[in-house]
Amino acid sequence: MSTTTIGPDGKARCRWCDAAPEFFHYHDTEWGFPVGEDRRLFEKLCLESFQSGLSWRTILAKRENFRAAFHHFDFNKMATFDEGDIERLLQNEGIVRHRGKIEAVINNARRAQELVKREGSLAAFLWSYEPEPSRLAEPQTASTSAESVALSKDLKKMGWKFVGPTTVYAFMQAMGLINDHVEGCVMREEVAKARSNFKRPGR
């Protein structure tokens, strides 16, 4: 079975783009490109937490609603949320109304503040788990890695929630800590260039 599909421009893309028309734009402009900004990294960890048990299409369709509801994932603002905010969010039909996940990302905002105080930035901490490419499985054949297991374990030790190894691995794929575009995908080389030019946070 082929690992690629043909996009609207006639060029090959990762096969998962076939799942929804809007995936092509997300795949070509975001997925796998390295990110070093704390807010964007925190946003993705939150959205991956909300995705647990759901499809990424569901989350992507609601992403702007999530951003509006959670102050664009500014964890310093989210850390101040109280029970009243949780009740407000549970009434918001534009997001995933799951009390456990909502409480988890608010908790994680507070843990992110603590981590920044200790490490200097969320980005420096998360990028310290970037795996050696030679140690990775073939693109899109694994759902976890030694590094995602280690990062998940360490985040949980610090009190983070909904950050299992699979969730963390999906985060690593999306935020460019690995280049998981398949061989033959037109974006694999673009992401490789972006990763080679990217200044790792904290180094």
UniProtKB/TrEMBL annotation:
Q: Which InterPro entries match?
A: Adenine_glyco, DNA-3mA_glycosylase, DNA_glycosylase
Chain segments annotated as transmembrane: none
What PANTHER family does the record point to? DNA-3-METHYLADENINE GLYCOSYLASE 1 (PTHR30037), DNA-3-METHYLADENINE GLYCOSYLASE I (PTHR30037:SF4)
Name of the protein in question: DNA-3-methyladenine glycosylase I
